[in-house]
Design brief:
- The protein is α+β, with helices and mostly antiparallel strands.
- The chain has 2 domains: 122 residues, 60s Ribosomal Protein L30, Chain: A; 177 residues, PurM-like C-terminal domain (Phosphoribosyl-aminoimidazole Synthetase, Chain A, domain 2, Alpha-Beta Complex), CATH 3.90.650.
- The strands form 2 sheets. A 7-stranded mixed sheet has the order 8-10-7-11-9-12-13, with helices on both faces.
- Helix 3 runs parallel beside helix 4.
- The two termini are 26 Å apart.
- The protein binds adenosine-5'-diphosphate and magnesium ion.
């Protein structure tokens, strides 16, 4: 999950730090801290995906059961008869949530949902979660009870079991980490890498709403900070606020696929915006994509609010994020199944990699879509 990552460009770790106890440096040549000419690199130079790749590229895989490690929505572990799926995400106060407008019950619910969504994105079923919390002394028992009531609600709704976790103190704020464990049929597990040229590109639900939900909550927060007697104006946008504060994972789409005996060729959940997720599918499938703006599903509240904020609704859909809808590709011969799917739109098709990732605007112009992790996508 990349959403809303803010890393100060000059953190203290970009400078040379003296080691108090230099045990490793003395014993391990490669970890020596002595070279005064050592170059320190800002993490923003690599971007999120570059950083993950950089830090993990030398890791070996020892277990034959580790079928798929880094790079998809969940890791895939071969259990013999089926695959076990594992995915983890963290939410940090001040980065991913603001308690001025996030009820703790909603936060508990959302923390579970964002993890379950990654398991569904593999065409799998979540079964268990583990939950680790680090929180400061400002959190009371009652506040944590509220948070857990949301966790419990999500567990009841999606029939998953909270089977463990960890609890520790933090100097300030709260950090939530959840790991979801799921299951998938070996022959029906869907990866980001399976899209083929000619496949249909499809998306569930509508896009851009969660991002605009966040914008209106932020706006009302500013109004409240200036005038604490002001009443928030959220009624016209309850769908968007709901999508931001209490999203759902698309378990219903996975049920629908199963009933139709349909298996997507590739799939990813939309946590970072359509552009970024398309980029992952195309990069891993070694394909391009052509999306038609007029086919991208956008809720009427999203359109209205986008215009209020002087934003282009398609930009919100492409680079907004946190919608937790599913982006998937389907063989052309599955069109007869896909066209009857509820709450699903066919928005484009998979092209050859040399065609790039393109958006055909409603005005008939072709644009190149670029998406780079936490860097903003550009829309020339
Ligand atoms: P998602 O948006 O679906 O949650 P991410 O973009 O967070 O996925 O992660 C992409 C891939 O990188 C996943 O396979 C994830 O497990 C892996 N990954 C993310 N952070 C790290 C890390 N610090 N170390 C190793 N792997 C990581
Ligand atoms: Mg994901």
């Amino acid at each position: 999950m990349k959403l809303r990552i803010i890393i100060p460009s000059k953190s203290s770790f970009t400078k040379k730090m003296p080691l108090l106890i230099n045990i490793f440096a003395n014993k391990t040549e490669n970890m020596s801290n002595e070279s005064s000419a050592q170059k320190f690199t800002d993490v923003n130079e690599l971007g999120e995906f570059g950083l993950i790749e950089h830090l993990t590229k030398d890791l070996k895989t020892y277990q034959p059961s580790s079928v798929l490690t880094i790079g998809d929505d969940a890791a895939v572990i071969d259990e013999g008869g089926h695959y076990t799926l594992v995915s983890t995400d963290s939410l940090v106060e001040g980065i991913h949530f603001d308690l001025m407008y996030t009820p703790l019950k909603h936060l508990g619910y959302k923390s579970v949902i964002v993890n379950l969504s990654d398991i569904y994105a593999m065409n799998g079923r979540p079964r268990q979660i583990v939950l680790s919390l680090a929180f400061s002394s400002k959190y009371t028992v009652e506040a944590l009870e509220e948070f857990y009531s949301g966790v419990r609600l999500a567990c009841d709704q999606y029939k998953v079991d909270l089977v463990g976790g960890d609890m520790t103190s933090a100097p300030r704020g709260m950090m939530i980490n959840i790991t979801a464990i799921g299951w998938s049929d070996k022959t029906k597990t869907v990866f980001r890498s399976g899209a083929q040229v000619g496949d249909l590109i499809c998306v569930t639900g509508d896009l851009g709403g969660a991002y605009l939900g966040l914008q209106i909550l932020e706006r009302e927060k500013e109004v409240f900070l200036t005038d604490p007697n002001a009443q928030p104006e959220l009624d016209d946008f309850h769908v968007l606020v709901g999508k931001q504060l209490k999203p759902e994972a698309r378990a219903d789409a996975i049920d629908m696929f199963e009933q139709a005996q349909f298996v997507p060729t590739s799939m990813i959940d939309i946590s970072d915006g359509l552009a970024s997720e398309l980029f992952h599918i195309c990069q891993q499938s070694k394909t391009g994509a052509l999306i038609e703006e007029s086919k991208v599903p956008i809720h009427s509240q999203t359109e209205k609010l986008a215009f209020d904020f002087r934003l282009d609704p398609i930009t919100c859909a492409l680079s907004g994020g946190e919608d937790y809808e599913l982006l998937f590709t389907a063989r052309q011969e599955d069109f007869e199944k896909v066209k009857y799917f509820t709450d699903t739109a066919i928005i484009g098709k998979v092209t050859a990699s040399d065609k790039g990732i393109k958006l055909l605007s409603s005005g008939g112009k072709m644009h190149t879509i670029k998406a780079q992790g936490w860097n903003h996508f550009q829309h020339p």
